[in-house]
Amino acid sequence: MAAKNRKKETEDTEERATRLAYIGTLASGLAHEIRSPLNSIKLNLDLLKESVGEVRSEARERFETRLDLIAKEVDGLQDLLTEFLKFARPPRMQPLATDINHLAQQVLELVEPECRQAHIELVRDFQEDLYPVAVDQAQFGRGVLLNLLTNAREQIGEHGTITVRTRDRDDAIEVQVEDNGGGVQPGLEEKIFQAFESTKAHGTGLGLPIARRIVMEHGGELLLQNHPGQGAIFIVRLPKSKILPLAPEGGATRR
Fold first, then answer.
1. pTM to 2 decimals?
2. Is beta strand 160-168 parallel, antiparallel or unpaired with respect to 172-179?
3. Whole domain around residue 134: which residue ranges?
4. pLDDT at residue 86 above 70?
5. Domain end among 63, 88, 113
């Protein structure tokens, strides 16, 4: 039975990899076709803004407002295209032996000003002397940790608490991001990890899918412990089997 399960998991992994590779190829071509007209639209908007002084004074404010609205929509489309490419064709990983506590601290410092402004408390609960794990620091830091922290901050809105924990388990290093923002609506626990399935009014629906894909490419898993009405805990588990030795003086060695 165990052998059958392993075979099924292997087949599922291969099928998923083939599907993602196809999506990546499709995405690259589509992105090129979309980005060119978007850039042209943006350029012409800039030219129109330069000429806004030629519009009659009584209509100028309305004209400027409409131009700003169009520019905002174009910027939104460009951001969505960038996020989609991150999901469909992420850059090749360059794993380094990493102190997860140090990386988490760096990412927390990025979100701290916004959280302070929104009266959200950031709690660090780091286990000391964690075993180093091999991660692509840029992709894991921004694509996973920053995505999870941003998701938690948006879920809370204002006045809440985000706790980041690190734990050394038997076979993995674990990072938990917990918030008290009310949790995920029951029945949507798995759906939020699917592309374009955002529960936010202005979300792209790609943040959590990108995070899960990056974690999976590191050989790990991204799990959700949902507590509707209270909050949620996103748990990242990174296997120790892919550990590299730390370089002298806190540096790192490349694979």
1. 0.65
2. antiparallel
3. 96-242
4. no
5. 88
